[in-house]
From TrEMBL:
It comes from Caballeronia udeis. This is Aconitase with swiveling domain. It comes from the Bacteria. SUPFAM superfamilies: LeuD/IlvD-like. It holds the Pfam family AcnX_swivel_put. Residues 42-127 form the Phosphomevalonate dehydratase small subunit-like domain. Keywords: Lyase.
Amino acid sequence: MTNNSEVVSGSAKAATAGRVLTGDVLVAGAVQAEKIVLGKPLSFWGGYDSQAGEIIDRTHPLVGHSLTSKIMVMAHAKGSSSSSSVLAEAIRNGTGPVGIVLRERDLIISIGAIVAAELYNLDVPVVCLEAAAFDEVVSASGPLRIEAVGGEGGARVYLDSRQALRTR
């Protein structure tokens, strides 16, 4: 995994604004959206309502929050292999995240996104970043853009994508 970061010149925003981070592609795709940071792992099985589109795990700090149309940022997942089916259904229903950034590779999350792509033709990119890059994503403000193609080193995560897209 690589982490080539650069600051776009002329940025008057926070130190992370306009930075481009690289990582590994777990599931290909591209998306731009606001992020939601889950400081605690979530099990989609029993922890997320794919119909209503909200976290229902009463022990999770973000219970009641929605992942709908957001890029979910979570260090690692928790729980059952059935989480992949709940994630795929949330994506199909339009109540799931539109992109996922992880710090640790997760087969179950990846399978959920792959199933949604194969069965429903709905792409949700899943990328894995090294710890330092992941921490930058967590602390960054503004929307993110994910461009995920090509496997190891093929993921690009643009911090404060409004700035990144203006300077391209």
